[in-house]
Design goal:
alpha/beta, 2-enoyl-CoA Hydratase, Chain A, domain 1, 10 strands, 2 domains
Length: 271
Amino acid sequence: MTNLPVLNDSELTLTKRVATLTMVRDDVRNALTGTELTEDILKVCEWVNQTPEVSVLVITGTGKAFSAGGNIKDMRDRKDIFAGDAHQIQMNYREGIQRIPLAMHSLEIPTIAAINGAAVGAGFDLSCMCDIRLAATGAKMGETFINLGIIPGDGGAWFLQRLIGYQKAAELTFSGRLIDAEEALALGIVMRVTEAEALMPAALEMAEDFAAKPPQALRYIKRLMKKAQRQTLPDFLEACALFQGICHHTDDHLEAVNAFIEKRAPEFKGR
C-alpha cells in the first residue's frame, strides 16, 4: 500500500491509480493563504511525481467554494503573506503561493479540477493550472484581482491566456468580473458542466479512464504536452523520438499491442 503524505487542511485518497485531493477549509472558503492548503498542495505534487502508483490527480473542495484564493481579511490586516514592506511581500509571494504554479506545472500526470463552487482569484488560477476543468452548475469563477487593487501574483495571467487566448483572458483580467459555469464552458475554460451531485462522479470517471492507460506512456505524454508549450518544433521532435524509443521498449507497449491483436482487455503493470 502506497503511503499517503500527511496533510493538515486537505484530505487525500488513492483509488484505481487516481489520487483525489479535497480542500476541507470551508470555514474560510478554502482560502490558499492563512491556511495550510498551500503546503498541502506542494506535498501532494511532490508525492505524485515520486509515486508511480498514481496516474491522475483530481483536485476539488468542500462546501460552497472550490477556493476563494487569498484571505481578504488578512489583506486588510496585512497579515500572513500580506505582511511587511514591498520587498518583504515580494519574498512572501516567491517563497509562498508562487510555489504552487511551479509545482503544478512540473506535475508528470494529468490533473483535473472539479470546481464544486466559487473559484476566484488564486483559487481560479489553481483550477487553470490543471489540465482539465469540470464545473458544477452553481460554480462562479473569475480573475478578480483588479477589484482589490492588486495583480494576479500567482501567475494567473500566464495560465489564463494560454488556456483561452490573449483577448478573452485580457477582458476577464481587466474587468475582474465573475462568470458562471455556462459562460466558462462557452469560453473554453471548463470542459463540462454538471449538476452538483454529478460533478465528482464525472471527474472520477474521466480520471479512471486516463488512469487505465499505460502508466509510463501517460507520464511521458504529459511531459510532452508541457514541452510543446515552450520548445521549437525541431527540439520537440527530438524529445518525441527519445520518449518513443523508451516506450517501445516497455512491457506495457507489448501488452497493449498483443491485447489489441487478441481482442482482449490489456493488463498494464507500469513496466
